[in-house]
Amino acid sequence: MKLPITLAALFVISSGFYFTESFAEISENQAFLLEGSGFAVTEEIIKISEIDLGLSSQQQRGSTINFLTEDGFVTLNDEEFVISELEGKFLREGRYIRINGNVESLTGQDTTISFFGRLVEESKDAAVYGFTGRITTTDDTYKVIYTTKLSTLSKIDSTPTTTETSDNLTIQILRGASTQGLVDSYIDASSIRDQAIATQNPNDPLRLRYFSDDRISVEPGTTITIVNNDVVSHSILSGKENYGDRHNPFTDDGRISTDPIEPGKSIDITFNDAGFYRLYDPDYPWMKIVAYVFPNIDSLIFGEGQNLGN
Predict the structure, then answer these.
(1) What is the pLDDT of residue 233?
(2) Domains identified in the chain and CATH numbers
(3) 225 with 171: CB under 8 angstroms?
(4) CA-CA distance, 229 to 211, in Å (whole number)?
């Protein structure tokens, strides 16, 4: 009997029942990063699940503020689901968060999620929420329990340069990235590339390996150096990915834009402020990097908690 009692106690704490007087200071036109982990459970299996979403708050109506999910993913063990259509609300000035909508796996599997979060505690750095809800795939329905952190992100102010060297993180554009690794030259390779898209194994971990890193996390002020080891030039933009839109896979947000990087050359990009964004090559849209730029310690005060038991 000790184990069920312990689990029940943890559930009550993570759900925020001990902190009903807490609140987070949420306002319009803010950018947030919601990240955390937990478990997804059916009657037969338990999977580790992670959530990582970039959010932007919209107009406030009463005590409710809607938000948009700009980018992000949810995982079930090693399977990753990227956002496609997610809606969310901050309720009662941030005491609660509701997220509903669709996500899609790399194999094209449609999945729905329905999460409800309660504020557990906040500090000057971030706010902690306990989430419960469901992930529904074509095969199973999982009950989920998450512990998450909600932190703010300021506007990205990135400056591309032509500096050839950097003491910071170096990202390699791999040879053959322009043809998805099939041939060295892009010339006369379009039909080969189209055939490869249809025949590649979607579960192959190297399928999307066109940069040396597909996901990076750095602090503001970091300079990354992008080195072009391919045989054609590449340029890098930042923007929002339009999942499922083959004709317009990205929408440029104007925050990052480089000149063409010739073969054998490099370019530096310095991220002066925090942000959540995706880098991609507009000519080869399968080439993309998810990046998180945020400090270890935030200066935002979410709210002055009136927590029971303080």
Answers:
(1) 94
(2) 2-153 (2.40.160), 158-293 (2.60.40.420)
(3) yes
(4) 10
How far is residue 68's CA from residue 89's CA, in Å, rounded to a whole number?
A: 9
Going by C-alpha positions, the residue among 7, 63, 89, 95 that lies closest to residue 307 is 95
| pTM of the entire predicted model | 0.51
CA distances from 252 to 85, 231, 275 (A): 19, 25, 15
**Are 231 and 178 in contact, with CB atoms under 8 Å apart?**
yes
Residue 295 to residue 29: CA distance in whole angstroms: 20
The predicted structure's pLDDT at residue 282: 92
Which residue in 306, 305, 302 sits closest to 26, CA to CA? Answer: 302
Output the six-digit token pair for 41: 């459970």
For the stretch 242-282, pLDDT in tens is 766 778 888 888 888 899 999 999 999 888 766 667 889 99
Give me the pLDDT at residue 244, please: 61
Q: How far apart are CA 17 and CA 295, in angstroms?
A: 30
Burial zone of 53 (CB within 10 Å; 0-12 exposed, 13-18 middle, 19+ buried): buried
pLDDT at residue 309 greater than cutoff 70? no
Measured distance CA(230)–CA(130) in Å, rounded: 45
Alpha carbons 130 and 16: distance in angstroms, whole number: 7
pLDDT tens digits, one per residue of 142-153 = 999 999 999 875
Query: Tokens 């908690």 belong to which residue?
Result: 305
Give the C-alpha separation, 160 to 128, whole Å.
35
- Which three-class secondary structure state does DSSP give residue 30? coil
Name residue 158's beta-bridge partners: 271
Other beta carbons less than 10 A from residue 274's beta carbon: 22
* DSSP letter (8 states) at residue 3: H
CA-closest candidate to residue 81, choices 107, 99, 62, 56: 107
d(CA 180, CA 229): 14
The mean predicted confidence, pLDDT, of the chain is: 75
Token reading at 26: 């949420």
